[in-house]
Task: structure prediction
Amino acid sequence: MQFIFLGPPGAGKGTQADILADRWQIPHISTGDILRSAIAGKTSLGIQARVHVEAGELVPDVLVMALMRERFGESDIAQGLILDGFPRTLSQAHALDELLSIFKQPHPQVIYFEVATESLVKRMLARGRQDDTEETIRRRLDIYQKDTAPLIDFYERRNCLTKIDGSLSMREVTQTLQESLLKYQCSALR
Ligand code: AMP
Result:
């Protein structure tokens, strides 16, 4: 059970990843959570990542890949995993391919959470996270369109993408995911 939850910020990926990781007893790996805790703990990663996260910009790939390499080295990923917020650029997607092959993991199935932009801004303002001001929200959405949205096509070409309607209620999305996820398997050749 390897999954990548892909979609714009505010699409509900983190909430659903929490619910399903708990239900299936697999780790929920959120680069955003790891970065926020590094920032709070003022670690060297946190200190370097902070300006980018606070500005709503992407943290440089080299930092993100270093933290992912470390995370993949932990033994709990053998049961499966849900990647949330990673990869976010084509170059991270290629680097992930390498990591998967180094750690002999199958390629995750990619779940794309489709949600209209207007609902995203509303949802993010409602959750009130520190980096959720209207200005940074707009910036994160622009960056998502430019850097992350190309991954939809990238994984679709590999036959690895399942689209779900992320505008449904939290409960309905969980149910859709539960019912459909296990049917799909990524047939990608890396
Ligand atoms: P998230 O919780 O996924 O919305 O991430 C919060 C912030 O962390 C983002 O706005 C970025 O600044 C940073 N971030 C999280 N994941 C990544 C990633 N894969 N690559 C670059 N920056 C990231």
